[in-house]
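Help needed: design a sequence for this.
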């Protein structure tokens, strides 16, 4: 039996959600209709909700960290087969499949990228329609039974963090890695960094989150109340060599300044988080020049990396469950956004629709 209406939180402009029942389009042979099981609230969602975003045109349903169940089967080009009634995670990417980046499989760099939960309706709704190009890149990934719905929704952010680490391409075993940001993304980077054998320092502003970082295995945490003090502590604790890899996992632009000041020679700084709108940074190019520092960024991931991320959770090498601190129904979505914005706990999940 096909559902008739789609209970949805519609982002209708800055700071405005409207809970509405949207019509559901008929199931088509080249699309998959999903029943949402869990959708996590990302820092990006909160930024879009507060400030808007150039790639988001309201009214639209946000939500791109999705665990869902397939409601129909699809057989595209005789090799992309999606079975019915399977629990899956979804890559948010809807690439054009025609541009030079798509042709080489770099779908997250697509020149004409659409994204579920940004430019196409996403997971803060009962049902999600997944278009053909997502299926063609294997963007719908079945999950194993030992992964619960809520943690499955966090495989998407894990996948983005993993993609960043794969891009760095520098060995970090026994090196100092400095993660600036003590939120859920910082704590995922921490787990990956420890998995790769790095000595990992987490810098943050929320004591309860820094405690969690210690429990997860951070070699050191720095409560960043005073920038100069934090910089001195990090240099002392790294025996004056600074970080080999510095990950900026916060949208606070001051973090980039801090990253430059704790970066060691021949190091790499990665801007992982989107930085709040209208913030222009000043960077001293001599710092990069004399210390041979690489300043880079990473965005999203690909379905191949997402499958690898799922395997890490399946093998219990990464623990996403401990990052979930709040659960809400769709009708309570405003509460979930307030808690996320106020750093109350770690990740909030919408899981009853
Ligand atoms: Zn996200
Ligand atoms: Zn493309």
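Sure. Designed sequence:
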């Amino acid at each position: 039996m096909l559902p008739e209406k789609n209970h949805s939180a519609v982002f209708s402009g800055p700071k405005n959600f409207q809970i509405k029942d949207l019509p559901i389009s008929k199931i088509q042979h080249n699309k998959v209709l999903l029943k949402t099981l869990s959708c996590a609230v990302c820092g990006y969602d909160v930024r879009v909700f507060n400030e808007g975003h150039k790639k988001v045109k309201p009214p639209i349903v946000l939500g791109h960290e999705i665990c869902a169940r397939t409601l129909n089967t699809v057989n595209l080009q005789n090799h992309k087969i999606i079975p019915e009634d399977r629990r899956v995670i979804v890559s948010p990417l809807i690439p054009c499949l025609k541009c030079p980046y798509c042709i080489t499989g770099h779908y997250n760099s697509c020149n004409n990228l659409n994204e579920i939960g940004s430019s196409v309706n996403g997971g803060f709704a009962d049902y999600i329609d997944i278009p053909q190009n997502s299926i063609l890149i294997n963007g719908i990934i079945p999950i194993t039974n030992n992964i619960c719905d809520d943690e499955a929704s966090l495989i998407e952010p894990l996948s983005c963090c993993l993609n960043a680490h794969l891009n760095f391409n520098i060995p970090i075993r026994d090196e100092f890695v400095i993660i600036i940001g003590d939120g859920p993304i910082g704590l995922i980077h921490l787990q990956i960094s420890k998995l790769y054998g790095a000595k990992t320092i987490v810098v943050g502003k929320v004591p309860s989150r820094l405690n969690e970082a210690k429990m997860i295995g951070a070699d050191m945490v720095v409560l960043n109340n005073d920038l100069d003090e934090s910089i001195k502590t990090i240099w002392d604790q790294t025996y004056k060599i600074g970080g080999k890899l510095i990950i900026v996992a916060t949208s606070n632009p001051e973090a980039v300044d801090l990253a430059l000041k704790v970066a060691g020679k021949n190091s790499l700084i990665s801007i992982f988080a989107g930085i709040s709108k209208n913030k222009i940074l000043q960077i001293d190019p001599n710092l990069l020049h004399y210390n041979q520092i690489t300043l880079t960024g990473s965005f999203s991931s690909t379905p191949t990396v997402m499958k690898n991320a799922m395997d890490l959770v399946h093998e219990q090498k990464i623990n996403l469950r401990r990052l979930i601190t709040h659960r809400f129904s769709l009708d309570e979505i405003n509460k979930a956004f307030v808690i996320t914005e106020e750093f109350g706990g770690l990740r909030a999940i919408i899981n009853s629709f």
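Residues 42, 44, 64-65, 157 surround zinc ion (ligand 1) (CB under 6 Å).
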